[in-house]
Amino acid sequence: MQPFLAGAIRSGGSKVNLKSMSIDKLSKLKDQVDTILHTKVADGRRTLQAELGKLSRFSTSQSRSKGLGLGARGPVAPKYRNPENPSETWAGRGLTPRWLAAAIKAGKKLEHFSIAQKAKQATKKAPKKVRKAKKA
Hints:
By secondary structure, this protein is mostly helical. The protein has two domains: 3-66, no CATH class; 80-123, no CATH class. 51% of the residues lie in helices and 3% in strands. It has four helices and two strands, in the order ααββαα. The chain has helices at residues 3-10, 23-66, 98-105, 115-123; strands at residues 80-81, 89-90. It has a two-stranded antiparallel ribbon with strand order 1-2. β1 (80-81) and β2 form a beta hairpin. The longest helix is centred in the first third of the chain and has 44 residues, at 23-66. The protein is rod-shaped and about 125 Å long.
C-alpha cells in the first residue's frame, strides 16, 4: 500500500480534503484506489469461480446418477446408415457427414440411406391369399 493512502486509512477513516490536494497527489491516489479495487475484484472472482466449480461438480454427478443423456436434447437413435460401412450412422442432427454429402452429390437420395425404410421393407409381408368358399 502506498504511504499516502495508508496514512489516510490509518487516520481512522477521517475525511480527506480532496479539493486541497495537488493534481499529482490526486492522480497517485486514483492509481492506488484502482490497484486495490482490481485486486479485490480479482479475489472475489476467484472465490466465485471456486464456488461455481464445486456446484458444477455436484450438478454433473447428480445428472449422471439420474441417467440424463448427453447434450441439450439428449441422444437420438440414428436415422441414416452408410451401406458401404454400416458402422457409420447419422441421426439427422448437426452437419451432414461426408459420406452422405458425397453420395447425395453423386445423385443418390437421402431416403436411400434411411434405416427406417430398410426396416419397413424387411417387415413387409406377402399379401394374404383369399380363399374362395366351396360351392356346395
